[in-house]
Amino acid sequence: EDIQISEVTFGKFEDVMLITAQTQSLNSSLVNVLEGGAVKEIYAEDGQLVSKGAPLARVYNPNTEFNYLNQETGIMQQISQMRNSLLELKNQEFNQNKELLQAQNDYNVALQNFNLQKRLYDAEIGKKTDYDMASQNLNYQQKRKNITEQGLVNERNSRNQQISAISNSINQMQKSLNVLKNNKNNFLILAPVSGRLSSFNISLGQNLTSGESIGKIDLMDGYKLVAKVDEYYINKLQPGIKGTLDNTDQSYNVIVTKILPEVKDGQFSAELNFADEYKPKDLRIGMTFGVKLKLSADTQSMMIPKGNFFKDSNGKWVFVVNGNKAEKRNVTLGRENALYYEVVSGLKSGEKVITSDYTDYKNYEILEIKK
After folding, report:
1. How far apart are CA 315 and CA 286, in angstroms?
2. pLDDT (tens digit, 9 = 90+) per residue, 127-156?
3. Nearest CA to 347 among 327, 329, 365, 323?
4. H-helix or E-strand containing 132?
5. What whole-number distance in Å separates Cα of residue 313 and Cα of residue 335?
6. Exposed, middle or buried: residue 306 (CB in 10 Å: 0-12, 13-18, 19+)?
7. Distance between CA atoms of residues 270 and 20, nearest Å
């Protein structure tokens, strides 16, 4: 009465596994907090349809706000100082242009006076002293004009470099100021895409940290299936494996598209998509379906029904029944499906095996079976 006996059979072994999958949005986008703080206002509800850029909530952090104001003030002061420097450089250029204009005018006057004194001297009308003074003044004004022109050229090159550097710095500061102003908008949490808001459960006053995910938005552009699978199958289940989904007496083709290798609580996640356009009607997020996946082709194999014996022997030995006794025998088991283990060696068709729990018998070699 304490044991269950099953017969070893030979037949078609279906290398399949049964999983339970739940529908999720084909594509979704996380709603992340850009700037941490306490929730000040909430503008949307879980399950609501939202548009891209729509405000979902607003947080407030007085320390960050104060830092933004200080940074903004500092940047504006630097921009003001740089603009004053530009103004000084332009005034310098204006003054030098005035000096050059004056030097050119003085040279022209000296040249006219020299030509006049030269004609008078050549005609023996003018005095030699006046001619010599006019010649000396012309020479002086020419050198003065040349020096002023050369200085203006040198100053202009240096000044243009300074103006270019200061202008670039002002542009960079202006960009920083714009970024800072945009960062102040990060207190407002906006929808990154259009779709249905889900997993959005925040409360007024709740403290949120920068980078924290507070929900997601389903794009409503299709559905995928997500299943939690026992870690035993992590090396057997691969993308591309096909299967069927049964719903209301109809079958639909599905295919494994992604394996998420992280194991948590003895399970990992697998994503599946419908293999063609033929899919159940009125699909909604959160619906649950049974899925049968075909891991490999059917074969003719020896099989024993599944049972609790496996957890004690790990499939390396079984109790084989012979009359009123059962003897421990080493076996090799291969693949498994929902109903059977495949027998690789150690058993023959028609033999009978105890498939119930071995907890009380695993330290024995022979069992006597009595009613």
Report:
1. 37
2. 889 888 999 999 999 999 999 888 888 888
3. 329
4. helix 128-184
5. 16
6. middle
7. 11
Given a contact cutoff of 8 angstroms between Cβ atoms, the answer to whether 270 and 260 are in contact is yes
What angle do helix axes 128-184 and 62-122 make, rounded to 10 degrees? 170
Going across the sheet that includes 188-190, the strands are 188-190, 55-60, 37-42, 207-208
Instruction: Determine the Cα–Cα distance for residues 345 and 132; give it in Å rounded to an integer.
Output: 129
The pTM (predicted TM-score) of the whole model is 0.52
What count of Cα atoms within 13 Å lies in the side-chain half-sphere of residue 50?
28
Total Cβ atoms within 10 A of residue 271: 17
For 44, the token pair is 């949307």
Q: How far apart are CA 300 and CA 151, in angstroms?
A: 101
What residues contact residue 323 under an 8 Å CB cut-off, 6+ apart? none
Beta-bridge partner residues of 321: 326, 352
Classify each residue of 75-86 as buried b or exposed e, where b means 16 or more C-beta atoms within 10 Å of its C-beta: beeebeebeeee
Task: Give residue 149's identity as a one-letter amino acid code.
Answer: E
| CA dist., res. 179 & res. 295, Å (int) | 53
Question: Quick one: which H or E segment has residue 64?
Answer: helix 62-122
Residue 111 has pLDDT above 90, yes or no: yes
How crowded is residue 330: how many other Cβ atoms within 10 Å of its Cβ? 10
345 closest CA partner among 355, 358, 329, 332? 332
Q: Are 60 and 37 in contact (CB under 8 A)?
A: yes
Contact 368, 327 (CB under 8 A): no
For residue 255 the two structure tokens come to 């295919």
Residue of 64, 56, 29 lying closest to 188 (CA atoms): 56
Name the token pair of 94.
């204006």
Compute the half-sphere exposure of residue 277: CA atoms within 13 Å on the CB side of its CA. Answer: 0
Contact 331, 345 (CB under 8 A): yes
Percent of the chain's residues with pLDDT above 70: 100
What phi and psi, each to the nearest 5 degrees, are found at residue 358? Answer: -105, 10
Integer Cα distance of 339 and 326 in angstroms: 23
As to burial, measured by CB atoms within 10 angstroms (0-12 exposed, 13-18 middle, 19+ buried), residue 235 is exposed
DSSP 8-state secondary structure symbol assigned to residue 128: H
